[in-house]
Amino acid sequence: MRPWFSDRTTVHRSWTCLRNLLEFNLSKVVFAKSLNTLDLNHNIYGSIPVEITALKLQFFNVSYNRLCVQIPIGGKLQNFDYLTYFHNQCLSGAPLASCKRSYNDLPRN
């Protein structure tokens, strides 16, 4: 998938997309390497792509979404507290407890 908020001439450091009517699969997004702020609460489903571990994030928020599976290990993802990941359908891994449901068990809209 082509990055839809990045191009070769623009350096994006922040992407804030919260509490709106967007709905997209986060695992399909290609992120600009310069990104240091990512706030996507109330929008997304799928999983957190491992590519996010390569970003030098200073702020990260994926709370109140429909994310499921394990939080990737690496980068700064484990440095953020549980509120960063709070209220997702089936997200597990540090700093959260394990989830007993799989993504395939969850209801779809």
From TrEMBL:
InterPro entries: LRR_dom_sf, PGIP. Gene3D superfamilies: Ribonuclease Inhibitor. It comes from the Eukaryota. Its main location: other. SUPFAM superfamilies: L domain-like. PANTHER family: POLYGALACTURONASE INHIBITOR 1, POLYGALACTURONASE INHIBITOR 1-RELATED. This is Polygalacturonase inhibitor. It comes from Quercus suber.
